[in-house]
User: Fold this.
Amino acid sequence: MELKKIWKFRFFIVSSIKNELSNRLSRSKLGLLWLGIAPMLQVAIFAFILSSIMSSKLPGINNTHAYALYLVTGITAWSLFSDILMRLLTLYGDNASLIKKMSIPILAFPLISIGSAWLNHLFLLLSVMIIFFFLDHTMGWMVLWIPFLTLVTTLLALGVGLILGVLNVFIRDVAQVMPIFLQFGYWFTPIVYTLSIIPQQYHQYFLFNPLYHLMSMYHNVFLYKIPPSFSSAVIVLSISLVALFIAFGLLSKAKNEMMEVL
Assistant:
């Protein structure tokens, strides 16, 4: 039933994604170029300054810019996850007027957020491919794994984001403290550092972090040019499905109360 409603509002979903892109481009003189350039500026600052220091600590990568490749890969994965999560966090509060005035399916708004995040990610991926080319690192047939990685990342962010989004309707402090937790997640995940520089006795704790497994899948594909680990894929997908199950349950039970609070 919900899927039929979403299909009915498909043009609204697509037009909303287009409008957000148009609004962003209208505020930037560089237009589409800025969507790819902006995320890479941060990467360039870290990567090319620290490449000579970290390259020797990346076994299995025969490239003088090994750390740059490693950092670009990690930020690519993190950018998609954090972008979707932060959009969903304040999703229902930001669209309160539309939700209350129109009979739009409540799941249509997460789809709009995901669509907009995917557009950003597409431009980022194009920038990554360009950087990899200039760093003499081509992925070959491994690029075929990118849609799978995108889907897995989206499912994980969607599950966690929807749960937090529903909670934020009733407890507005959630949106305030979540950026702090994201910072902890960023630094507790091997993105700007490799696990090899962490003492061996602490490695086991990283196994409890689903983002660690997600990041290892990206590193396999983008960096080492091998398929994602099956065990990592199972772990991330399992956590994602559990989170989605909880999120849809919360939405179903709290939908009416959300309308009143909004």
The chain has a mean pLDDT of 83.
